[in-house]
Amino acid sequence: MWHKIINNWKYIVVGIIIVLAPILLNFILLLHIGIPEQLIVGDSKLWLSFWPTYLGSLGTFLMAIMTYKTLKQNEKLIKSQNTPKLSCSLSVGNNCLLVIIKNISSVPAYNVGLSLINKTNIKEIYKFDSLCSSLEKVRFDISPGDSKRIEILGIEPHKNGQYDGYISVILNYNGVTETVNNYLEELNITEWKRN
Fold first, then answer.
1. pLDDT in tens, 109-141
2. Alpha-carbon distance 105 to 85, whole Å?
3. What is the DSSP string of 2-27?
4. Distances (CA, A) of 44 to 38, 88, 109, 175
5. Who contacts 82 (Cβ-Cβ below 8 Å, separation ≥6)?
6. Is-contact 169 115, C-beta < 8 A?
7. Are 85 and 149 in contact (CB under 8 A)?
8. Which pLDDT tens digit goes with each residue over 129-176?
9. Which residues contact 87 (CB under 8 A, 6 or more apart)?
10. pTM > 0.85
C-alpha cells in the first residue's frame, strides 16, 4: 500500500496545494498584512460562501478523473474479453508428436496461421520441411474451446523420458504474432504409445 502512495506522490502534492491554497489565501486576507484594501476582493462572509463552491467543484473534478480512469479500465477489459487467446502445447499421439493449438478464450480466432521451427537435437525430422511449407500456406479458424492438432512424424522420445530441445511455434491470428517454445522434455513420457 505504501509503495502506491509513494509512487503517486505528485498527485498527493497537487491535492495538498489545491486544499491549502485557499486556506492560506484566506489567512493572508484576514491578517491584512501590507495588502491595500482595494486589492482584497470581498469580505470574510464572501470568503465563507466561497468554500462550498470551491469544495464542490473540487469533488466534481475528482469524480471526473475517477470516471475517466474507470472507463479506460473497462475499455481494456472489453478488449481483452473480445480478443482470442490461443495456447500451444505438445502431446504424444500414435507414432507421432502432436502440436496442439487450442482457443482458450470465448471468441473465435480467425485466419490462424502458424510456422514450426525445429530447435531439437534431431537435425532431420521426417518430412518436417514439407510439413512446414504446407502449414505456412494454410489458414484456419478455431472456435472457442476447440483445438487444432498437427502431427510431427519422426520424433520418438527416449525411453527414459529425456528430451533435448524444443519445437518453436509461431502463431499469427487476429493481428497478433506470438512465439511459443514447446520443450520436448516437458512431455516427460516414459514410453512411446504404439498401435
1. 888 888 888 877 777 777 778 888 888 888 888
2. 5
3. HHHHHHTHHHHHHHHHHHHHHHHHHH
4. 15, 72, 67, 63
5. 107
6. yes
7. no
8. 888 888 888 888 888 889 888 888 777 655 455 567 778 888 878 777
9. 101, 102, 104, 180
10. no
